[in-house]
Amino acid sequence: PHGDIHAEVVVLGAGPGGYTAAFRAADLGKKVILIERYPSLGGVCLNVGCIPSKALLHVAKVITEAKDAEHQGIVFGKPKITLDKLRAWKESVIGKLTKGLKALAKKRKVEVIQGTGQFSTNHMIQVETPTGTKTVSFDYCIIAAGSSVARIPGFPYDDPRIIDSTGALKLEEIPKRMLIIGGGIIGLEMATVYDALGCKISVVELMEQLIPGADADLIQPLYKRIKKRYEAIYLKTKVTAIEAKKTGLKVTFSGENAPEPQTYDRILMAVGRRPNGHDIGAENIGIHVNERGYIQVDQQLRTNIPHIFGIGDIVGEPMLAHKATHEGKLAAEIIAGHKVVFDARTIPSVAYTDPEIAWMGLTENAAKQQGIDYEKVTFPWAASGRAIAMAREEGMTHLLLDKNTRHILGASIVGVNAGELISETVLALEMGADMEDISLTIHPHPTLSETILFAAEIAEGSITDLY
Ligand code: FAD
């Protein structure tokens, strides 16, 4: 049975996964409908995630570098921040990209329907649009409905002084004193922004280390730098109560490092994201959604209903835009009959903090747990001419290699631009490079990318003394 409209491929959700899937399916000749509840395309990443956070992090970098230039004899004075202008600029960055997406959709004749979709049968989605209900029938569907901010229950969220990442990116004001609950990537990126803008930052994290997924030695240089800049970092500490008072938000902590109760102007809740699997009527038609809200898919991104696919944050960790886009492309190609599966060797992770932290492949923790016979080589940026010339020699480049085959197994970099630098190691892993391949590859001098070369040379024994 056909609905009001029929498409060969319907994509539910227009984030990086969804728009990539829709565009690829259209390029492969399919008639595509893209359903999105918000008026602008781009999902979390473009509107309230990756892009606005990086726009603000750029500004943070300008402010901190200008200040740090004092050590090189250049004094700019205290920055004057015009919040309205900063906000407008950030909006213009988002605007350029979402406008671009709209044009790309139009060019491919992808029909965009604005509204909230729910499955009604396994060939039909019902969409609540601003002008009434529409039914859309499909041959194939790609679920790309993403994730939402997670909350710890029991805190007074109706108080506007408790914000989440979306609220933090709005940049309504610069609070004097802010507590960030959650020392993961999103919390620490926002800390970087608000610290540069002049807010006193405290971070509280339940685990014993910031960014718990990464190796401890990778976090150290970041920890050392921000410990000096921030008011406090409480590890292995739990927030047990938040009381909304007229004078501020009174927070009670527990744990061995817990301070006395403290009062803050703002609290940023950054305790993770939850997949939207329970919010799209997937269970109505028998799609397997697990307890946490993830939709289960196989290596071809198929749900248990073979003509319905799932991609991006809604199908599992890591919740990253580049995973979503890769999966989106793949799902569209599979629908078009290509014989492909998800076969990436790794999905790199980056925290765009200051310094940045990036890692890919096996972490040392995972290698130990799996009993892998590995070797780890480290090149300290204190021996990199470029890092010294940038006055940022706290960085480190680590490579993890298989002791027997000498092949690269993983890499992790902390330092400015680590997020850009990590890609080379991802390519090396995808291509099965060994330490000799990397060490015989001529890298431009003087660059930070050389630190990867130098680490491989250390592994090969062709550099023994760093000076
Ligand atoms: P989403 O981007 O979540 O898009 C899903 C879309 O589906 C949304 O537009 C939603 O409105 C729509 N939708 C949901 N349900 C329905 C429905 N029933 N009907 C119609 N539409 C619906 N990742 C990175 O890789 N790099 C970063 O630097 C980075 N920074 C981030 C910073 C922040 C502050 C946040 C919050 C996230 C960040 N992420 C980053 C994560 C990244 O945003 C996500 O991994 C990515 O957006 C996931 O893409 P997606 O397509 O799966 O889903």
Automatic annotation (TrEMBL):
The active site is a redox-active disulfide bond. This is Dihydrolipoyl dehydrogenase. It is an enzyme of class 1 (oxidoreductase). It comes from the Bacteria. One of its GO terms (biological process) is 2-oxoglutarate metabolic process. Belongs to the class-I pyridine nucleotide-disulfide oxidoreductase family. Binds 1 FAD per subunit. Keywords: Disulfide bond, FAD, Flavoprotein, Lipoyl, NAD, Nucleotide-binding, Oxidoreductase, Redox-active center. The chain holds residues 136 to 602 of 606 of the full protein. The keyword Disulfide bond applies. GO terms for molecular function: dihydrolipoyl dehydrogenase (NADH) activity; flavin adenine dinucleotide binding. It catalyses: N(6)-[(R)-dihydrolipoyl]-L-lysyl-[protein] + NAD(+) = N(6)-[(R)-lipoyl]-L-lysyl-[protein] + NADH + H(+). Its cofactor is FAD; (R)-lipoate. The active site is at residue 445. FAD binds at residues 54, 117, 313, 319-322. Disulfide bonds join 45-50. NAD(+) binds at residues 182-189, 205, 272. The keyword Flavoprotein applies.
